Amino acid sequence: MAAVTEQTDNPTRLWGGRFAGSPAEALARLSVSVQFDWRLAPYDLAASRAHARVLAGAGLLDADELGRMLAALDDLEAACASGSFRPTVDDEDVHTALERGLLERLGALGGKLRAGRSRNDQVATDLRLYLRDHARGVAGRLVELADALTEQAARHVDTPAPGMTHLQHAQPVTFGHQLLAHVQPLLRDLDRLRDWDRRCAVSPLGAGALAGSSLPLDPIRVAKELGFEAAAPNSMDAVADRDFVAEFLFVTALIGVHLSRLGEELVLWTTQEFGWVELDDAFATGSSIMPQKKNADIAELARGKAGRLIGGLVTVLTMLKGLPLSYDRDMQEDKEPAFDAVDTLELVLPALAGMVSTMTVRVDRLAAAAPRGYTLATEIADWLVRRGVPFRDAHEITGQLVALCVARDCALDELTDGDLLAVSPALTPEVRDVLSVRSALAARTTPGSTGPGPVADQLAAAGDRLVAWREWASERVVPR
Ligand code: ARG
Fold first, then answer.
1. I need a labelling partner for 130 at 20 to 30 A (CA). Which of 284, 295, 306, 411 fits?
2. What's the pLDDT at 23?
3. CA of 332 to the centre of ligand 1 (A)
């Protein structure tokens, strides 16, 4: 919660002319949003500067008034940043608080800025600016996690590991491939953020409460000044639309799901049973009672936070469902889930990145586990196929081999030439050539497969894309 200071004697209110009395305490307590929307202040101030210039362009502020207005806005921004100006409990929301700040600095002139503008178009503008700005912050943290994963992957381009389906050993893979399989969803998430950002780059300012303005405003100029691509084509939609919040929350929920899947794998990998990964002390936690414990709490929290990210999306979709046009106060409920999604990811992503980049991969354990569970059975079936055996029969023959091994509790390469021939005359001793993890991996040369060659290609391509994403993440959205 923003630091809210004590009550003032004569609260600033953006409405009240037609009201004989003050709002009831219970109403004021319910409707106040400044404790969470105060973080929109820098964006509200940026929008105010643009609006002031447009008012001047329309002849509604003279040059001197514009100069004083912009200076006061700058001063107020500095005061907000330093904390010398803070919202009070009587400021209903960020817009009210900042108007009070302006009135304190300019007297009556401060009251001119509200012309042609409503909190409805203001809040929609501010939230778009905030989310566009913070989407880049989240993208930067995503890139850091993807970097950590690709750096580990680079060390394990040819480290064999047991690839799994149904959490059962399936076929050997390279561990680098598996790590990169967690990078690909993050690259898609980055794509989704930028794609969302294009649709979000529409400015509601100028819509007023819902109908536009009778004053000669310039929504296109304001849009440009605030870094938007266009001005909203429909003033009612401009103040009613929260697609950009819902879509943003879908992207963050999906990121949460991706992190939870990575988290779950890290939890498994660090168990005694797997023992694939050893965590750095700085990124593991202990137990208050069991001195030997080293827990993967970061991975568990990453897994757990997915719930609140998904919850945020559901909150906003449910809030919007069935709302009549245009603005309804229900929409004030859009902000906390959006802010929480940003805060959550800004917490989780650096911790996960640190955990991944400092973990030690146990190559010996992975290599030993790779052939376990008859993961080379498919190699035999494919070898038979290359010799002209229909896959249906090859599958059957190999299945019988596996059954024999299970009965004898031995590995596939422990069967004798006689055992092989007894199952099928097609199983000549040359089949042994494919019964090694190395050869199984080396044979996988098609694009996107797990062989060291294609994994090296994948690594290079992911690295190139991450360089480009780092650039996007460092863009500034809101010009001064
Ligand atoms: N705090 C409000 C919100 O977040 C600002 C808009 C208020 N508009 C209104 N017509 N009461 O939605």
1. 306
2. 85
3. 6
